[in-house]
């Protein structure tokens, strides 16, 4: 099997027939399969899909999940039971145009890519019918991902829900995946091992029928997901920085007790010593806590590189401290 098309569904009964008909136009029934993963929709989407199978010349698998909900986990479950070399993920509401399926598959093969992302924001891509607020929310969410996740920074659309991935990429990292909310691609980008990611432009369409499931709950889940993926680094970074400031001030206080001259006539030396102690404190906590999963090389090398990285902060802190001491007393 070459390609498995994984489509999570929930209350998509009025779209399902149109969706399957559209998808089958662009796939090879002998080498491709469609996997519908339904979270026991109240409108019986799964049942509607089952009734369509006898009418079609396509391999269709319907997975009905009872007691489990969530778009991201539905996608992972669909990929796990798939049989294709590649798994292509798309929504059931036809906002991801089926005619781009061959383009994503061809890009994976011709460019030797492990992940191919359908991008709305690269040259040739776009969004159809979105109000300015929805576009702003999407681009803001994408910016947050790029700021906090290094794996997303070189991509124009890391938030895309329309993408293709080599099945083994997900399977070999299955135990590490714990997706929440709607953005399973970010989970794969951050936690899976792969070599090459490429983007293919596409135009995101208006919803054919039904209603969007994006709401405040999904936005909150996304933010929590991002923080989990970056291991809450912004908060850890802030806490370590605050701790470093307290260590610096504490060191100056201790020097004032045991070596008053380092706070008075030799403050240039005392302030430098306090800054170095706080720098070592910051390095230790960042190395063991904030960036523990990103450590490379020996501890000596990491310590030297850390000092180079914080040179601007050291110069600023040292300059302000001595300005306050010698010019403002």
- By secondary-structure content and strand pairing, the structural class works out as alpha/beta
Whole-number mean pLDDT: 88
Q: Summarize the amount of helix as a percent range.
A: 40-55%
Ends distance: 77 Å
What is the CATH top level name of the largest domain?
Alpha Beta
| Percent of residues in β-strands | 5-15%
**How many discrete domains?**
2
How many helices? The count is: 12
Task: Give, in order, the helices and strands.
Answer: EHEHEHEHEEHEHHEEHHHHH
Strand neighbour order, sheet with most strands: 3-2-1-4-7-5-8
So, CATH architecture of the largest domain? Alpha-Beta Complex
* CATH H-level superfamily of the largest domain: Spore Coat Polysaccharide Biosynthesis Protein SpsA, Chain A
Spans where pLDDT lies below 50 across 5 or more residues: none
Which outline best applies?
Answer: elongated
CATH domain topology of the largest domain: Spore Coat Polysaccharide Biosynthesis Protein SpsA, Chain A
Largest sheet: 7 strands, mixed
Strand segment tally: 9
Rg, rounded, reads: 26 Å
């Amino acid at each position: 099997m070459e390609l498995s098309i994984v489509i999570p569904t929930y209350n998509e009964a009025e779209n399902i027939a149109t969706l399957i008909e559209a998808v089958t136009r662009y796939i090879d029934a002998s080498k491709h399969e469609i996997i519908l993963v339904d979270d026991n929709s109240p409108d019986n989407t799964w049942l509607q899909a089952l009734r369509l199978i006898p009418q079609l010349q396509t391999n269709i698998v319907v997975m009905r999940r009872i007691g489990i909900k969530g778009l991201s986990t539905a996608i992972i479950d669909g990929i796990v039971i798939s049989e294709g070399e590649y798994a292509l993920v798309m929504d059931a509401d036809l906002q991801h145009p089926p005619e781009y399926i061959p383009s994503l598959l061809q890009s994976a093969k011709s460019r030797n890519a492990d992940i191919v992302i359908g991008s709305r924001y690269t040259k040739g891509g776009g969004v159809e019918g979105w109000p300015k607020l929805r576009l702003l929310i999407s681009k803001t969410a994408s910016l947050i991902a790029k700021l906090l996740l290094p794996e997303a920074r070189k991509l124009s659309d890391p938030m895309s829900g329309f993408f293709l991935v080599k099945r083994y990429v997900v399977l070999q990292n299955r135990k590490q995946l714990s997706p929440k909310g709607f953005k399973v691609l970010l989970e794969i980008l951050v936690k899976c091992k792969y070599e090459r990611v490429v983007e293919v432009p596409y135009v995101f369409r208006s919803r054919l029928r039904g209603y969007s499931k994006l709401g405040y709950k999904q936005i909150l889940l996304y933010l929590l997901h991002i923080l989990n993926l970056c291991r809450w680094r912004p908060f850890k970074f802030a806490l370590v920085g605050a701790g470093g400031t307290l260590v610096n001030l504490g060191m100056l206080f201790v020097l004032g007790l045991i070596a008053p001259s380092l706070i008075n006539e030799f403050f240039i030396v005392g302030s430098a010593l306090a800054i170095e102690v706080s720098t070592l404190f910051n390095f230790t906590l960042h190395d063991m806590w904030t960036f523990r999963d990103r450590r490379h090389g020996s501890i000596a090398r990491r310590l030297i590189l850390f000092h180079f990285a914080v040179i601007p902060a050291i110069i600023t802190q040292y300059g302000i401290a001595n300005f306050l001491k010698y010019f403002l007393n």
